[in-house]
Write a structure and sequence with these properties.
This protein has about 350 residues and is an alpha/beta fold. The protein folds into four domains: about 5-100, OB fold (Dihydrolipoamide Acetyltransferase, E2P) (Beta Barrel), CATH 2.40.50.140; about 105-175, DNA polymerase, domain 1; about 180-270, DNA polymerase, domain 1 (Orthogonal Bundle); about 280-355, 3-Layer(aba) Sandwich (Rossmann fold). Helices cover about 35% and strands about 15% of the residues. It is built from 13 helices and 14 strands. The protein has a four-stranded parallel sheet with strand order 12-11-13-14, with helices on both faces. It has a two-stranded antiparallel ribbon with strand order 1-2. Strand 5 (about 50) and strand 6 (about 60-65) form a beta hairpin. Helix 6 (about 180-185) crosses helix 7 (about 195-205), helix 8 (about 215-230) crosses helix 9 and helix 8 (about 215-230) runs antiparallel to helix 10. The longest helix is centred in the middle third of the chain and has 15 residues, at about 215-230. It is globular. It starts with a strand and ends in a 5-residue tail after the last helix. Bound molecules: zinc ion. Zinc ion (ZN) binds next to loops.
Length: about 350
């Protein structure tokens, strides 16, 4: 059964007889998309070669055709979403198959998971087990609802005693105030990763004067731009037509993002605005710096992390040397991290990396 992601994309998954790879047991591996399955000619029942790099999900490299018995079957994408049953769509010329239902439970739960997760509002302790119950019980219907939960609401969850309910409630309160770029990234707008969120935050901060009710004023502005002059999103550094139309679709008239920021404001979420950029600062917080990214950085793909380094004026590099200024190390970082430690190069975790990109820390 394929996996349905946050944007509805169906990712075919290989279910394997459990096998030990690099110290952990692997029972599932990604097949990326149908084109990839066809290109590699991977069939149901095949013996396969697996690859596991860093902490990323293992992938199927190739089938071992010599071991075929003739009983292997071609893999087909399902016609309907395995979660909600909506007919699966594949856009003309596109690689991905997706569930177009914005209310698909798989999409919704992942959107909320992203919102509450470490790449988003970072609510400690709001894992899948908690999230699913909150959604199933209708306690969270909109993003702002996280901030409307009482200790009593949480105490009703499975395996939640008073103490754990209080801890989660406290963690939610702690996440109430976040930097604007983090709140934007938490929304999970298609095409909008950390780099874009940071640029968008700077643009908004320059457009909307600071002061009371900043968030609702910014929300009104975003929604007005989305419906009336969407081309203006291209004023934002690094945003081209694709991201611009994704933003217009999300914040536009019938878009899923309509009212979301107002809801967060009503629920008591506050944003910290980025410092206004001066002409001298536009060279970027990483101007002239060489940065090596290693391991899985929460909230970024490898490409996004490197793109973010470039957008901040830095130069991403593939290997650690004396000339490296920073090493950004995520989960599964290995030899490059060790090398950085050996050379005494500053090592940043995902949190510091974001702060640095946003120009909040030096
Ligand atoms: Zn669906």
């Amino acid at each position: 059964m394929p996996y349905v992601g946050r944007t509805g994309t169906l990712t075919p998954v290989a279910h394997l007889r459990p096998v030990k790879v690099a110290g952990s047991t692997v029972a599932r591996a990604t097949l990326h998309n149908l084109d990839e399955v066809r290109r590699k000619d991977i069939r149901i029942g095949d013996w396969v070669v697996l690859q596991k790099a860093g902490d990323v999900i293992p992938e199927v490299v190739r089938p071992i055709t010599e071991r075929r018995t003739g009983d292997e079957r071609e893999y087909e994408m399902p016609a309907a979403c395995p979660v909600c049953g909506t007919a699966i769509v594949r856009d003309e010329g596109a690689v991905r198959h997706y569930c177009p239902n914005l209310a698909c439970p798989a999409r919704v739960s992942q959107e909320f998971g992203h919102f509450a997760g470490r790449g988003g509002m970072d609510i400690e302790g709001a894992g899948w087990h908690v999230l699913e119950q909150l959604l199933q019980r209708g306690l969270v219907k909109r993003r702002g609802d996280f901030y409307r939960l009482s200790v009593e609401d949480l105490e009703g969850l499975d395996r939640f005693a008073r103490k754990s309910a209080e801890n989660l409630h406290a963690a939610i309160q702690k996440s109430r105030r976040r930097p604007l770029e983090r709140v934007i990234a938490a929304l999970g707008i298609p095409q909008v990763g950390w780099t874009t969120a940071i640029e968008l935050a700077h643009w908004l901060a320059a457009e909307i004067p600071a002061g009371d009710d900043w968030l609702p004023r910014a929300a009104t502005h975003l929604e007005r731009v989305a419906s009336e002059e969407p081309g203006r999103f291209e004023e934002v550094e690094g945003i081209g037509p694709t991201v611009s139309s994704a933003l217009a679709a999300w914040f536009g008239d019938a878009g899923p993002g309509r009212g979301v920021l107002q809801d967060l404001h009503d629920a008591g979420v506050e944003v910290e605005l980025p410092a206004l950029r001066t002409a001298a600062a536009t060279a970027g917080p990483l101007a002239g710096k060489t940065v090596v990214v290693t391991g899985t950085i929460e909230g970024f793909s490898r490409e996004e992390a490197e793109e973010a380094v470039r957008a901040a004026g830095g130069k991403p590099a593939g290997s650690v040397s004396k000339r490296t200024d920073y090493v950004v190390a995520g989960l599964g970082a290995g030899s490059k991290l060790a090398k950085a430690e050996e050379l005494g190069i500053p090592i940043l975790d995902a949190e510091h990396f974001r702060g640095l990109l946003a120009g909040e820390i030096e």
